Amino acid sequence: MSTMGEGTRRSFYRDTDRAVLGGVCAGLAGYLGFNLKMTRFLAFITFLMAMPIAVIGYLAAVFLIPAESHRDFAVAGERDEPPRKRRRCREHSADTPAPSGAEEIDRRCSTLDERLIRLEKHVTSRRFQLDQELSKL
């Protein structure tokens, strides 16, 4: 189980990043610090043992528990504002003008190009080929 420092509050939410159906099991596993696979296995056993009650409870949880996604956030632990907002605040101080739409698109394309180059380099490496051969065994 994970330890939380004093003064920090955890809240229960549905984890949409690791969701299979509604993210309830993923959120519960994250909140309690359990293994996600074990939580899903126990939920499956619960569905088998008490089908109508478990289905109603799961659907109620999907509709009542708020969903949260970490894909939109760059730094773990900073969940208050999206990274785009932080980036704008950091990049643009009062004395620098805001970039135009074309400049923003150009910047995004250049970062995508860099990521694509790294990905191609990884996929064409001998290490990747070796990992693929070992996974076939």
Helix-strand layout with pairing:
Layout: E1 14-15, H1 24-32, H2 36-49, H3 51-64, E2 67-68, H4 83-91, H5 101-123, H6 126-136
Parallel strand pairs: 1-2
Give a quick summary of the entry.
This protein has 137 residues and is an all-alpha fold. The protein folds into two domains: 10-98, no CATH class; 99-137. Helices cover 58% and strands 3% of the residues.
For the secondary structure, the number of strands is 2
Strand pairing plus helix content: what structural class?
A: mainly alpha
How much of the sequence lies in strands comes to under 5%
Query: How many domains make up the coordinates?
Result: 2
* Widest sheet: strand ordering: 1-2
Spatial gap, N to C terminus: 34 Å
Radius of gyration: 22 Å
Biggest β-sheet, characterized?
2 strands, parallel
* Shape call: flat
Number of helices: 6
Q: What is the average of the pLDDT values?
A: 76
What is the succession of H and E elements? EHHHEHHH
Question: Helix share of residues?
Answer: 55-70%
- Runs with pLDDT <50, length 5+? 73-93
Descriptive account of the structure:
This protein has helices at residues 24-32, 36-49, 51-64, 83-91, 101-123, 126-136; strands spanning 14-15, 67-68. With 137 residues, it is an all-alpha fold. It folds into 2 domains: 10-98, no CATH class; 99-137. Strands 1-2 form a two-stranded parallel sheet. The longest helix has 23 residues, at 101-123. The chain is flat. The model is unreliable at 73-93 (pLDDT under 50).
Tags for this entry?
mainly alpha; 2 domains; 2 strands; 137 residues
